[in-house]
Amino acid sequence: MDIFHEMKKYWTGKSPEGHDKFSIPFRPDEDGMIGRECPNEDCQPRYFKIHIPESDEEKPEKTENDMNNDLSQSDIICPYCGHRGNMQEFHTREQIKWIKSMIERDLFKSIQDTFKQALKPSRPRNGSFLSIEFKPGILPSVRHYIEEKLRREVECSKCGQKYAVYGIAFHCPFCGGGNILIHFERSKQIIMSLLDSGDIIKEKGGEEALHHHMGNCLEDVVSLFEGFHKSLYSKAIIERGPHEEAEKKIKRIKTNFQRLSVAEEFFIKDLDIEIFAPLSSNEREFLEELFLKRHVITHNLGLVDQKYLEKANSMESMGRELDILRPDIQKGLEFVEKVIREDVKLLGLYD
Ligand SMILES: [Zn+2]
Ligand SMILES: [Zn+2]
What we know:
binds zinc ion; 44% helix; two-stranded antiparallel sheet; elongated; 8 helices; alpha+beta
């Protein structure tokens, strides 16, 4: 009797120890990617996707990671935490559930077949008073899964392979190369394209809409600074360990990196890095004021308040609407870039 049904097509034989062996092929999504999940439980967000080369021409040259032609047996690297391991360690929980559901279905079917054979319908013989007939029940269904949609697709600048991640990632899963600046560049380009769309916004919604739009762009610059510094800080702190202490420090970040002086303090105290060293004092002051403007936009409808006047050392009048100009945002973005590039260098994250 066949034990395997759903799993039969994947059966490849027996191991020397007598265990059944299966080979389940990758099931790429419509973008040609398969989901992977980092086995390191402390890693966040763990899920990413890698592109499966379709043709031989697409297959990469051998890299330092010794990517062999059998991708299923290659080592890969978690783009978030850098954990390195065999491809087989990186199955997603959904993929495992799918395989388990096939095994479960096969198991139920085998049990039902056994009963069916053992309890074939028969007429009661002379002297017997019972006839049993076995009616098989509904088999458990095979689970289906779809890979998650990840907006950020990256092509590694070192090995040319493609992969997709959530937000910011540090490594290429194929060659391990430091790719964080590719992410920065992408985020910067998005802000630049939003700034470029200012004219269309003005045409459609007038001066007020443009002002609102510029406020949003400024928020994006602050978020860029905050998001990258959060990631850089967390990664460096985790690497320095110990784990529990690192977790405590990371928890303290909250929204603190929206304020330049606090971010500066965290980096000096915990990582011995002066994040604003690449900026002149004027540039630093300019950035500080820009960040304060963002605070006013988010929390006071863009109207100058007492706190802003005190901190920004500004000549503006109370209650007046703040000017948010494109050249200022662009300049701020340029300074943020200077800082982040230097951080990445000092933390040794770009190789
Ligand atoms: Zn990881
Ligand atoms: Zn690479």
